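Continuing the series of single-chain predictions for the mutant panel. This is the parent chain; the variants come on the following pages.
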Amino acid sequence: MSAKSQIVGTALNAYLNSRPAKYALHDFGRLLRGGRRHARLYFRADDPYSHLLVQAAARLASVYPVEIEIIPVAHPSIAANPAPDMLQRHAISDAAILAESYGLSFPSVAEPPTEDRVRRAHAVLLQRRPAEEQLKVAAEIGEAVWRGDGAALASIVERYGSVSGEEVRPALEANYSALERAGHYQPGMLYYGGGWYWGIDRLQYLEDRLRREGLEGSLDLTPGPAPHLASLIGSADGSPPRIEVFVSFRSPYSYLAMPQLIDLRDRYGVDVTVRPVLPMVMRGLPVPRAKRFYIVHDTKREADRLGIPFGHVCDPLGKGIGYCMAVFFECAVGKGVELEFAQSVMQGIWSEARDVAHVPDLVFLAKRAGIGDAEVRAAIEDRSWKEQGKANREALTDLGLWGVPSIRIGSYSTWGQDRIPLLEAEIARFSAQG
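Parent structure:
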């Protein structure tokens, strides 16, 4: 194992092991302050996930004794969000499906709001008012902004008041700086007692934590059918759905996707094509420190929920990634072991601290997928993987996506392993009909 890989792995392992102590410290501080529970919701009026989260946060505050403060923030930096236009287009379509599934409000067809309306919305939310009222105002603003209802927004400004236009930008930038100092980088986040909870996807972890603190209640935020999604993934001839997944061997979320996709293939006969791309940093896209550490922490709690081993890490950046790509394209493609090889290698990287730049480790991981020693050693001498990886990256961009894992099924494309359960529910319904 290289010294750099060892240092990175040690730092990540130490970070993961520090989280329980950090939460305990925050809980102790809360008790010293009289037990008052306070959360901060970092919000942007042009972020679809913020609008969904505000609706769910209002439920949370009505069920549990948690005061939720709305904090409007500026746009993330390019380092934190390297594809802002792609992200917003994807988030709009993703939010519409999530709203349909979870019984929340978001228009089925929406356009990015104008800069003027976003500024006016933030001017209202920067006006100080009680937390409970602010949640209500934020939900009203989201409805007006995302439905393009200028008259409704003007009415909100008149009824609730706002700060002056000159105050908006400096205040948003100051709030974003505070978000960064607290340890995060994007809106649509709830912060409670040292923990970060993104959108409606991670509220289950906050609810679990409140229950561990002795509180009782239920958000009753359970996904249901999403008819629009079903219409997108179905095939015209009634044949089983086919999945195309773009992954990176260095992406922990890609690792989480592998066992779930293998399960879909084995249980429903879904054909899954794996298309590896280079990690973001090897594609010239920066990943800030706070983002790296949050992703690893978030992956750990998701892995624990899914029963996937995670946390003993060896960073594969550099030669190790090249070796993995070479063996994948030369030895796994076309031989029915694409998923098995990707799964074995990522398990080695993310839970066994196997150094894939070290040939004996790579041989061991490939052997678990049915690929022989001689095949591996011949493959790593081949450089044709670079063109194949480039083609995959271009195909990913053509879908309007940039991160991994990204999934295409039918005419539906999405980003993130979080959406696999929604896909599974629709695939199960499709199979039952067949």
